[in-house]
Design a protein that fits this description.
Elements lengths: L12 E7 L2 H10 L9 E7 L18 E7 L9 H17 L6 E3 L3 E4 L2 E13 L2 E11 L17 H5 L6 H20 L5 H10 L7 E6 L2 E10 L5 E5 L2 E5 L5 E2 L1
Parallel strand pairs: 1-2
Antiparallel strand pairs: 2-3, 3-7, 4-5, 5-6, 6-7, 8-9, 8-12, 9-10, 10-11
The protein binds biotin.
The site of biotin has 20 residues, from helix 1, strand 3, strand 6 and strand 7.
């Protein structure tokens, strides 16, 4: 659906100057039974204890980037379909960047790259009840105006500014804009205009390193493989000399 222009419906967004982690903030509100409606969102202008995937940290220049989180209650998803939520979020961000004339790639499972450098990371933390995902806190960090990266990060990370020359004046407005693209993706999925297969097709079309040889690590071995696709369970299909093997998120990483 490329016709969406990004108008936001009324959005409940709180903006704070400084906060440890926007994911932790929402998780603790929810743990204290605060009745947060779906899409309640919190943005920090300076996030001091940002968390990333695989227990990493997310540290970016203050007041230059987007660091925000929001709440979803995706009872329309079974626990086993958690990768669908992953795709919805990655593709919503992808749509937002496309609307700016940028052509990003998606690095499995959910980094967004421009010119092969990471500009956006996603941390989805789910709570399940029975076979359903009861609650998700979705955290997104986008490097927007940051001009410099240090400690070797300049080779792998970048920002919208560095890749396009565009400066974003109003980060709060941009956050609302991105949220609107995410809402559009999720609404279209909920009302069945988009199926999991549609998402999978688009996701695979934009997949970084697809059909290209690269090096991977699994347990304590490293190997060369060609990434062929990602399936609905979020498994990576890696072709090696002895055939195609599949890997879940915890089982493999890019080198
Ligand atoms: C990753 O690529 O490893 C995921 C990074 C996720 C960072 C965002 S910034 C807003 C939200 N709050 C956090 O503590 N982390 C996420």
């Amino acid at each position: 659906n490329n016709t969406f222009s990004g108008e936001s419906r009324r959005q409940n967004l709180i903006v704070l100057d400084e906060l440890g982690s926007t994911n932790d903030y929402l998780k603790s509100e929810l743990a204290n039974f605060k009745p947060l409606p779906e899409w309640s969102a919190i943005m920090a202008r300076h996030q001091t204890a940002g968390r990333g995937q695989r227990d990493s940290t997310w540290t970016v220049e203050p007041n230059s980037n987007l660091t925000f989180s929001f709440v979803l209650y995706p009872d329309y998803l079974n626990l086993q379909d958690h990768f669908t939520l992953n795709m919805l979020i990655s593709l919503g961000i992808h749509d937002w960047l496309i609307s700016k004339g940028i052509t990003p790639e998606i690095k499995w499972p959910n980094d967004i790259l421009i010119n092969q450098k990471k500009v956006c990371g996603i941390l989805i933390e789910n709570k399940s009840a029975g076979m359903k995902i009861k609650q998700s806190v979705v955290g997104i960090g986008v490097n927007v105006n940051q001009k410099q990266f240090f400690d070797g990060l300049e080779n792998t990370a970048s920002s919208l500014f560095k890749e396009t020359g565009i400066t974003t004046e109003n980060l709060e407005e941009e956050c609302l804009n991105l949220l609107a693209f995410l809402q559009n993706r999720i609404e279209n999925f909920k009302n069945k205009k988009l199926t999991t297969n549609d998402l999978l097709k688009t996701y695979n079309n934009f997949l970084f390193l697809r059909d290209k040889p690269a090096r991977y690590a699994s347990s304590d071995i490293t190997f060369q493989a060609i990434l062929r696709k990602v399936d609905a369970n979020g498994q990576l299909y890696l072709e090696q000399s002895d055939g195609i093997k599949t890997y879940f998120f915890k089982e493999v990483r890019f080198l």
